Amino acid sequence: MKKKRGKLKRRILWSIAILLAGAIFLIILADDRVSSRSSKTYTSIQEIPHRKVGLLLGTAKYAIGGRENLYYRYRLEATRDLFFGGKIDYILVSGDNGTVQYNEPSTFRKDLIKMGIPSDRIVLDYAGFRTLDSVERCKRVFGEDSITVISQGFHNQRAIYIADKRGIHAIGFNARDVGTSYGFKTRLREKLARVKTLLDLHILNTEPKFLGEEIQIGGPDSTSNEKKDTKE
């Protein structure tokens, strides 16, 4: 009986070890694949090519506890610099609008306008629930397949990886990053998000949660979509 229990215990331990090794392998593989897109990202306004549309990836304005979210502030500043530097003509703000109280696109819009960016140059995408949705809707809903993605560098890499696999020509402008201690949880989530991205693109063939009617950026309806594109 003891021998059988011993064998069973060893089998369980081996199974756990194999699962852990497989998980680590997937994390390393995903990280390497996504990081290879860093050559398509820029930190210099002077060096980045011009694109008609900058895709600003949403995040919350405030972190848990009510403190300022530095990721939000730095993305806002990067977008301002790109626009006034003449590197983008329109800003497509894509983010989560899951509840009445939580509205990433509208919050960004208000702060962009405060920075002096004309409201008719800001287009809102309320169905950017995930990075995959934001990137793919940029092409399939808003008709843009050549874009500049605006977020922190690690996030831009993943967005560009998605874009490459879905036939979208994307480059990234890296917003200022935050310190390791401040962004530790975000970086950890990013490692797992990269694994999920590989599964979505190469195995599950995941589609955006919502699509909806097409909107032409720069057209008469593109900047009057305050709630037009929500939950279609």
In short:
The chain has helices at residues 2-35, 70-84, 104-114, 131-140, 153-165, 184-204; strands at residues 41-42, 51-57, 88-94, 122-125, 146-152, 169-175. By secondary structure, the chain is α/β, with parallel strands linked by helices.
Strand-helix topology:
Blueprint: H1 2-35, E1 41-42, E2 51-57, H2 70-84, E3 88-94, H3 104-114, E4 122-125, H4 131-140, E5 146-152, H5 153-165, E6 169-175, H6 184-204
Parallel strand pairs: 1-6, 2-3, 2-5, 3-4, 5-6
Helix pairs in contact: 1-6, 4-5, 5-6
Describe the structure.
By secondary structure, the protein is α/β, with parallel strands linked by helices. It has six helices and six strands, in the order αββαβαβαβαβα. A six-stranded parallel sheet has the order 1-6-5-2-3-4, with helices on both faces. α3 (104-114) links the parallel β3 and β4 (122-125). The longest helix has 34 residues, at 2-35. Mean pLDDT is 90; it is low at 228-232.
Q: Rg, please? A: 20 Å
Distance between the termini: 61 Å
* Helix content bin: 40-55%
Strand content: 5-15%
- Please give the count of helices: 6
Order of helices and strands: HEEHEHEHEHEH
* Backbone shape: elongated
List segments where confidence is low: pLDDT < 50 over at least 5 consecutive residues. Answer: 228-232
Side-by-side strand order of the widest sheet: 1-6-5-2-3-4
Look at the helices and sheets and give the structural class.
alpha/beta
Overall pLDDT confidence: 90
Number of strands: 6
Largest sheet: 6 strands, parallel
State the main characteristics.
232 residues, alpha/beta, 6-stranded parallel beta sheet, 6 helices
